[in-house]
Amino acid sequence: MNRPLVITEDQDLLDDLLRVAAAAGVEIDVAHAATHARPYWRRAPLVVVGADAADALAASGPPPRQGVLLVTRAPEDPAVWRRCVAVGAQAVLELPAAERRLVDEFAEASEPVVRAGHTVCVIGGRGGSGASVLAASLALAGSRRGLRALLVDADPLGGGIDVVLGQERATGARWPDVAEREGRVSFTALQEVLPTMGELTVLSWHRGESPPIPPEAMRAVLEAAHRGCDLVVVDVPRHVGPAAAEALSRAASTLLLVPADVRGVLAASQVLIELRRHTSALGLVVRDGALHPDVISTSLGVPCAGVLSDQRGLAEVLNRGDAPPLGDRTPLGRFCAEFLRTLESR
Length: 346
Hints:
It is a single chain. By secondary structure, the chain is of the alpha/beta class. The chain has helices at residues 11-24, 38-41, 54-59, 80-87, 99-110, 131-144, 175-178, 187-193, 215-228, 242-249, 262-275, 293-300, 314-319, 331-344, and strands at 5-7, 29-31, 47-50, 68-72, 91-94, 118-124, 149-153, 196-197, 200-203, 231-235, 253-259, 282-287, 304-308. The chain folds into 2 domains: 5-110, Response regulator (Rossmann fold), CATH 3.40.50.2300; 118-344, Rossmann fold, CATH 3.40.50.300. The protein contains 14 helices and 13 strands. The strands form 2 sheets. An 8-stranded mixed β-sheet has the order 8-9-7-10-6-11-12-13, sandwiched between helices. Strands 2-1-3-4-5 form a 5-stranded parallel β-sheet, sandwiched between helices. The model has no long low-confidence stretch (mean pLDDT 91). Pfam families: CBP_BcsQ (PF06564), Rv3660c_N (PF26563). This is Septum site-determining protein Ssd. Residues 7-113 form the Rv3660c-like CheY-like N-terminal domain.
């Protein structure tokens, strides 16, 4: 994959740009002279030109192109705009004030593919309803269909959604390792540090003290995943804090898993009060029970997205450390396949 190009002879400026690129999680090519930039000029996704190299670059007559930025560490330099025009730059960025924008520009240029993935939130209408299993199953089913998927565990008290997949010992970062991230983040950089199984990447919790997720970190992760994934599934806790609210506000669909009994419906009605503050894209998934799905849907005022029958032996499979079985004959497999087909058709 082609990398952003930096053109400068100013070592102090280069040190700043290397630090900014590291913050964006990308590697760059460096040309210390304008003539050295020629092999990279057309193919680099982004060209960052130091003000010190602008005149020499303009004199070399590079062909016009998009994605050129002029960077300076000298505020209010009267010659900077002339240099900007001379090299065909689209903007002038003054450091350090423009560092955040430059991080974003580097991250944007390094994204391999713009995927515009769908975000799906899953939340239990009552404790123990199986929302984490459903979230993990949807993400796993999507990855097996060839979708690049990210499974996000937004519940610090849930024990870690990696356990549902039998991957609690997988090497890689967990939420405490990425909780300080904010601003634009490359999904490629996330994928490199998180546990990944084929097309499925997992951001889970560790076992131990669990501080709340900053909403800025959730925003950064979901924005990166939206650009780099086909499917993002978030396991949302029933207590909706700021980070969970951030996920709900970005969801194309939020599935509320409701056991089909009186207590389950009453509990779900309380959860809905909070959910409706953050999203209107709601659908019910009804667990088989005493009440008919149509009665539950009418009572709660939410359309039914499907019915999930009990799956014999599922608890034993999960306790063995195996991933949920998602064959065509299993209730989970059938529901996930049908829901993903519906989601892809939108």
